[in-house]
Write a structure and sequence with these properties.
This protein is 50% helix and 2% strand. It is built from 11 helices and 2 strands; from the N terminus they run H-H-H-H-H-H-H-H-H-H-H-E-E. The protein has a two-stranded antiparallel ribbon. Helix 2 packs antiparallel against helix 8. The two termini are 24 Å apart.
């Protein structure tokens, strides 16, 4: 399979003051803090990763990892999951929440792979986002982690941290991706996204940021100001979709 490197379509938009200067500092310090950046989802193939990322919406990776062994033991191939009964899949993934929608999404995504891609996960953004249940966030994770294609996945942690760090003032995930990718080299996109997620879970925790433990405190415009989310962030919804 030929893996194509692709970049998001970047529109010229005014960035927050100092964003270009902060970006390389953020990249380098998080690399030192989390040298082994990786997804905490457990998977054995691009298809299993794709399923796991879809299941991870609105729940923890721990929850996803608790159900996927049984799921992949029951349905070991994309063809088997594509032909699975909705009720049977729902029963296995129940604890991840929103199990009706998630069961339908992973079944329909698998059906699309069988019908249009011979059961193989494509390594192009343009193809991934045409699969039912797959948006840019999910596609970027799969591209970066499974195929080594630079991709900047924007989830709720990445949305919150990039705005607190004033790397962007956007609230839309696609615009956040465009802004950050315009000031960070493609080789760093996947790692930065994964590290921001880890940092958001472990240090820059929503509603309880540990600024005194943060390696970015001296360059973060929001540090020690009591800002757990940027102004207007509460109005933004849908950052975890896709």
């Amino acid at each position: 399979m030929t893996v194509q490197r692709r970049s998001p379509k970047v529109r010229r938009r005014r960035l927050p003051a100092g964003a270009r200067e902060r970006a390389p500092i953020v990249v380098e310090r998080l690399k030192l803090e989390y040298p082994d950046a990786h997804t905490e989802l457990e998977f054995g193939s691009p298809w299993q990763l794709l399923v796991s990322v879809i299941l991870s919406a609105q729940t923890t990776d721990v929850n996803v990892n608790s159900v996927t062994p049984a799921l992949f033991a029951r349905y070991s191939t994309v063809e088997e999951l594509a032909a699975a009964r909705q009720e049977d899949v729902e029963e296995i993934i129940h604890r991840t929440g929103f199990f009706h929608a998630k069961a339908r999404a992973i079944r329909e995504m698998s059906q699309d792979l069988v019908l249009r891609h011979n059961g193989e996960v494509p390594a192009r953004m343009e193809d991934l986002v045409t699969l039912r249940g797959v948006g840019r966030k999910t596609a970027n994770v799969v591209l970066g982690v499974a195929f080594g294609v630079p991709g900047f996945a924007v989830d709720t942690h990445v949305t919150r941290l990039t705005r607190l760090l004033r790397l962007t003032s956007a609230t839309d995930p696609v615009k956040i991706e465009e802004d950050v990718c315009s000031i960070v080299p493609p080789s760093e996109w996947t790692g930065l996204s994964l590290r921001l997620i880890l940092h958001g879970r472990r240090v820059c925790i929503a509603n309880k940021p540990r600024c005194h433990q943060c390696v970015l405190a001296d360059v973060c415009p929001s540090a020690e100001l009591g800002l757990t989310k940027p102004p207007g962030a509460a109005r933004h919804r849908g950052a975890t979709a896709g």
